[in-house]
Amino acid sequence: MRLFTVSTLLLFFFSSGLALQIQCYQCEEMTHDCSTPDFIVNCTVNVQDMCQKEVLVKEDGIHYRKSCASSGACLIASSGYQQFCTGKLNSVCITCCNTPLCNGPRQKKRPPPSAAVTLSTPQLPVFSLYVLLSSTLC
């Protein structure tokens, strides 16, 4: 009976859309920062877990490439091009991030949160699932 309960809970957890998916902006060789709703894509679940942004400085101006990426590939690319990120002609800067639409325009600095608002909710319900499974198995 416990195995049935645990199996049912796990099936519910994974079929309820709680798998890890991120949204990113995606465009190729644009001469404007393609951070509009037209360029938002859903990345491949549990494979593409980061957003990537490339900024290239060419003779005709700044070009942008944005996409979904796997963390390994993105981090290798960004570290490999770090020496070419000068901001001058032929510069290539690659950045990686892992929050929704983080490869868009830079966010304005927010003021620090007030002392009255210090509570935060967990992003994923993994802890509550762990507690629920622990109490079921005991």
Q: How many DSSP helices?
A: 3
Q: Label the overall shape.
A: globular
Strand order of the largest sheet: 2-5-4-6
Largest sheet: 4 strands, antiparallel
Write down the overall mean pLDDT: 76
What separation lies between the terminal Cα atoms?
13 Å
Which structural category do the helix and sheet elements fall into? Answer: alpha+beta
SSE ordering: HEEEEEHEH
Q: Which spans have pLDDT < 50 for at least 5 consecutive residues?
A: 1-17, 115-138
Q: How much helical structure, as a percent, in the residues?
A: 25-40%
| C-alpha-based Rg, rounded | 20 Å
Number of strands: 6
Strand content of the residues, in percent?
15-25%
Task: Please characterize this protein's 3D structure.
The chain starts with a helix and ends with a helix. It is of the alpha+beta class and 138 residues long. The protein contains three helices and six strands; from the N terminus they run αβββββαβα. α1 packs antiparallel against α3 (126-137). It has helices spanning 2-15, 71-80, 126-137, and strands at residues 23-25, 27-30, 40-42, 50-58, 61-69, 92-97. β4 (50-58) and β5 form a beta hairpin. The protein has a four-stranded antiparallel beta sheet with strand order 2-5-4-6, with helices on one face.
Descriptive labels:
138 residues; 4-stranded antiparallel beta sheet; single chain; 25% strand; alpha+beta; disordered N terminus; two-stranded antiparallel sheet; 6 strands
Provide a compact summary of the structure.
The protein has three helices and six strands; from the N terminus they run αβββββαβα. The chain is an alpha+beta fold and 138 residues long.
